[in-house]
Amino acid sequence: MEGDRPRFQRIYICLAACKKGFLDGCRPVVCLDGCHVKGPHPGQVLSAMGVDANNGMFPLAYAYVEIESNSTWLWFLELLSGDLNITNSHGYVFMTDKQKGLIDAVDTLFPQAEHRHCLKHLYGNFYLEHRGLALKHQMEAIARATTVPWFHAEMTKMLQLSKPAHDWLMEKDPRHWSRAYFKSDSKCDMLMNNLCEAFNRSILDARDKPILTMLERIRLYIMLLMAGRRVLCEKWHGQVGPRIRKILEKNKAKAQWCIPKAAGQNQFEVMHHSGRTFAVDLNGHSCSCHAWDLNGIPCLHACAAISWFHGNPEDFCDAVYKKEAYLRAYQPMIMPMTSQDQWMKVNLPPLLPPKYHKQPGRPKKTRKQAVEEPKLPSNPYKLPRYGIPLKCANCGGEGHNRSSCKEPRNPNIKPTRKRNIAKDKLAVRRRDGGDQSGGQQSMQLRQRKQSSTSQGPSQSQASQVAAASLSQPSEAADAFQSQPSQTPEPAKLSRVQQRRKRMKDQQRSHFVKDPFFHP
Questions:
Q1: Are residues 130 and 64 in the same domain?
Q2: Where is composition skewed (Basic residues) in this entry (predicted)?
Q3: How far apart are CA 9 and CA 6, in angstroms?
Q4: How many other CB atoms are there within 10 angstroms of residue 46's CB atom?
Q5: Hey, is 101 helix, strand or coil?
Q6: Do the beta carbons of residue 77 and residue 98 sit within 8 Å?
């Protein structure tokens, strides 16, 4: 409040259709993230996303706040907890990144929930101290390990590559970033917070608009998203979505390298071509590799066991991936709204706009790239020189070129090709009678060429003969007498004229071949 008039500070929106769809058809997984607002009133958009039956983004709630901090995240999560009626956070999974105050807010409000950190942002911190493609791939292998023995085996490989990198990872709690320590209640094995990133990308055009316009565009986007997916679900071929079917197809292709052996009561011992053996229980939807337990989708060992009796792997997928769960999530409809001029008037004082905070520097329109992201080349048509050190052609040192070299010239370095060409030109000029005379001769020849191009072809030949007669009169006369009488050559056409002539010839040939054409 400023005097008698209130001032706008922040707003939280959770649509009833999104709330009901999340509770009825989505898994208890909530992804949290924030993005910048670049309109006339800078701020932050905090968003909470769910995961639908097709492993897609399900918008749950969003809010506009003046700044991203621990207090604003606490305010947002308290309202979200009230809408979802979360009294006991056991069984919920919250996926976050390194946002300001977000990790502490989740630990404070949901102490019993599983808290996962985005692997991409975790690698961003890892990249600042330990760089290299081998370390990156090894860190991803550690995060994707589904059993504790495999986790320790991959950590041993990291120790062999780099001990500081191994010590850095040992300081992090593996329950936040490795599948080997994830709980299997949520049937979700996501490692990255891509769902919130996709939502931030979808509302990119609305984030540079005024607050009311931005919120209205976000509501319209969610309404169209739910309506479109409700229609597309009717075109599914099978019990699961296209993304889940694609995962099953990959697992069935890998299952060809496995040999299942039935033990009875839908329990199998599956031998992989690598020599490892796994125990599969089809009744309990479990495998000793722990992949089926985590995500609820039959792994390659389970697909091999199912193929033993010619079964369908879609029948063994968890119920959260079925078409019925997808329809329950998108069945609620967001009702259409009228424009602002048709709203009812209320006898309340109008809100003051939020205080304008002018940011230092020029406003940025592009996203700030992370440290590990590849930088775009200045010239996309030039291939980068990987592994080739930059060497100076002046002093012979590395790390700079000749244009920025400040050292004296090294006489032991051979001159480059440009220097050789310059020396050759200088030697020719001196041989012809000096630099000044050579320059005058080249200028005279240039003027003669220009005059010959402006004149006709016969005049150009005569000028060439006259020029030759000036230098060598006897040879020029002999050449003129010995030259046969020929028709003048046509002037050369430009590329545009050649193309036009070619098109006319093609059209003319087409008309000639046409039997119904009468010129």
A1: no
A2: 355-368
A3: 9
A4: 26
A5: coil
A6: no
Terminal CA-CA length for the chain: 87
- Decide if 467 is inside a domain: no
> How many domains is the chain built from?
4
Last residue of a domain, one of 259, 293, 316: 316
pTM to 2 decimal places: 0.71
Mean pLDDT of all residues in 390-410: 84
Please indicate, yes or no, if residue 338 is contained in any of the structural domains: no
SS3 string, 467-515, reads HHHHHCHHHHHHHHHHCCCCCCCCCCCCHHHHHHHHHHHHHHHHHHHCC
Residue with tokens 């990249």: 127
Q: What is the pLDDT of residues 332-373, one digit of tens each?
A: 999 999 988 888 888 888 888 888 767 677 767 676 776 666
> Do 163 and 308 share a domain, yes or no?
no
Are 31 and 9 spatial neighbours (Cβ–Cβ below 8 Å)? no
Residue 405 placed within a domain: no
Domain presence at residue 460: no
- Domain residue limits at 289: 241-316
**Backbone torsions φ then ψ of 385, nearest 5 degrees:** -100, 90
More confident residue, 458 or 10: 10
